[in-house]
Amino acid sequence: MRPVRAFAAALIVLASAAPAHAAPAPAAPAPAAGAFSQATLTRARAARDAGLRDDAGYDALRELCTQVGPRLAGSPGDARAVAWGLETMKRMGFSNVRAETVTVPRWERGECHVEITAPWPQPLVACALGGSVATPEEGVEAEVVAAGSIDELKALGEARVRGRIVFFRGHMERARTGMGYGAAVTVRGRGASEAAKLGAVGVLIRSIGTDSNRDPHTGAMRYDSTGTRIAALSLSAPDADLLDRQIASGKAVRLRMRNTSRSAGVAVSAKVIGEFPGRGAGAGIVVVGGHLDSWDLGQGAHDDGAGCVIMLAAAKHAAAAGPPRHTIRVVLFANEEFGLSGARGYATRHEAELARHVVAMESDLGAFDVWGLETGFGPGRETLVTPLMSVLAPVCTEYVGNGTRGGADTGPLTSRGVPALQLATDARPYFDLHHSANDTFDKVDVALLRENIAGYAALIVMAASGDVDFGRLPPAAATPVATPVATPAATPR
Ligand code: ZN
Ligand code: ZN
Fold it and tell me: Which pLDDT score is estimated for 341?
C-alpha cells in the first residue's frame, strides 16, 4: 500500500537535502512549477462535470463483466479482454490504438478441497492461492499448527511445525486507506516458503480480505527459488473462524487438504494502449491506466475493470474539454496480478520516452467513494496543490500529502522519476470484495464510478495542459517487478 506522508514534511526533508551553503556541483536549476491558467481551470471543471454525468464508463464496465468476465493472465478470457480493450478504445475515439505484447506466466486453478477430520469433522470453503502447486494426488492430512504471522511461525520452530499444516490466522485491518493490506498480505506471498523451511506439509491462510462472506479471497503467492514447494490455500473468513474455534478447544485439530492447481508454462498477453495526441513536437505524455487482467474467481469488476473504465472515460472527457498540450495516453496494463508483466514491459519498452512522461496516474482500488488527493511531485511544487484541490472540490476535499509513488503498475515509472497523481478512495468496501467470487458487476455503484471518472478527468486536464511542471521524483531503488509478490509499496492489488 502507499505510505501516507505529510506533504509539508516530505518537502521540508527534500528541501533541506540541498542547503544553500553546500552546493558542490552547479546542478541545473529545477524548472519553476508554473501556474495553471484560467482557461485550464475552466476546462478541468467542464471535464469534471461531464464525468459526473458519464454513462460510457458504466456501460463499458457492464460489457467487460458480461462479455468477458474473469481474465486471468494468459487465459482465453484475457485474450478476449485485450480484444475488448482495443475495440472499446476505438469506439471511444482514441488514436494510435494498439496492443503491445508481453509474455505472461500461466497458472491453472484446478480443484481444491479442505476438511477438518478431527476433533469435529466439517468441510471448509477454501481456494488455492495464485501460483500454488498441487498437493500429492491423494492430498495431505496432518495436524494443524496456527500462527498469527511469519515471525510467530519462526518462533514456533521446527519441532512444532514439521509434518504439520500451518494455518496463518491473522486478520486484515479494515481501514479507509487500505493500510491493513500491506501488513496482512505478507503471509500470502511468503507464508508457504517460510513454513516449508520448517518442514510444514501445507499452508492455509485466513483470506486477505475484510468481509465475512463464505468466499475465499485468492491472490498471488510465490516460492523461493530453492526449497520445498507446498500447497498454499486461502480459507474464507467464517471458515477461518471455525478453525480457530476448534483450535481454541485445546484438542488436536487435523485437516485434510487436496489441491490440483498447476503452472502451465507461458502465454502471450498484451497491454492495450490508446491516446488523445498532444500538440507539437515537444508534447509530453500524461500516462493513466489500470490493469486489464483479473483473478479468475469473480468478474474483475472492481479489480480492476473499474480502474480501466474510469481512466478510459476520464481521458475521453478531458480531451473533449479542449485539445490537450500533452498527449493523454491510457494504458490497460497486462498481468498485474500474477507478475506485473505489463508494468515491467511498459517501463522497459518506453524507456527512451520516460523523460517526456510528465505525470502518471493509476486507478486500482475499485470504484468507491473518492475522499482525497495524493500527489507525488518533485520538490517545490506546493503551489500546485490548491488549484488542483479547487477543481476537485465537488468530488473530494481532503489533501492526503505528497507521499504517493503510484500503484503497482506505475511504480516502475515513479521509481524512474515520473511524478504521480492519485485519488484516494475508500478501501473498506474494496477489500471486502477483492480477489473473491463476489467481485461482480452488481457491486458497482454508478454514482461512485462517476465520482472517480470526474476526479480523474479534471486531473488529466490539469496535467495535460502543459501549464505547469510537476518536477521529478528522486530516483528510487528499481521496483522489483519480476516476481508475483513485490515489496509493500508495489503490492499487486
Ligand atoms: Zn488484484
Ligand atoms: Zn488490482
Answer: 84
Distance 429 CA to ligand 1 centre (A): 14
- Dist. CA 467 → ligand 1 center (Å): 35
39 C-alpha to ligand 1 centroid (Å)? 38
- Separation of CA 221 and ligand 1 centre (Å): 12
Closest CA to 472 of 357, 330, 383: 357
In a domain, 24, yes or no: no
Distance CA 313, CA 363 (A): 12
Q: Domain count for the chain, please give it.
A: 2
Could you tell me the distance, in angstroms and rounded to a whole number, from the CA of residue 337 to the centre of ligand 1? 5
Between the CA of 34 and the centroid of ligand 1 the distance, in Å, is: 37
Question: Residues 95-132: pLDDT tens digits?
Answer: 999 999 999 999 999 999 999 999 999 999 999 999 99
Q: Ligand 2 mean position to 225 CA, how many Å? A: 25
Clarify whether residues 251 and 275 are in a common domain: no
Q: Same domain, yes or no, for 295 and 441?
A: yes
Task: Find the 365 Cα to ligand 2 centroid distance in Å.
Answer: 7
pLDDT above 60 for 212: yes
Q: 470 in a domain, yes or no?
A: yes
Distances in Å between the Cα of 409 and the Cα atoms of 83, 343, 405, 432 are 21, 5, 11, 22
Spatial distance between the Cα atoms of 86 and 220, rounded to a whole number of angstroms: 27
pLDDT digits (tens, 9 = 90+) for 49-68: 999 999 999 999 999 999 99
Per-residue pLDDT band at 476 (split at 50, 70, 90): confident
User: Domain span at residue 277?
Assistant: 7-16+31-106+265-490
What's the 435 CA to ligand 2 centre distance in angstroms?
A: 9
Ligand of minimum distance to the alpha carbon of 431: 1
**Last residue in a domain, options 210, 242, 260:** 260
pLDDT tens for residues 175-198?
999 999 999 999 999 999 999 999
How much is the average pLDDT of 350-370? 97
Tell whether 217 and 292 lie within a shared domain.
no
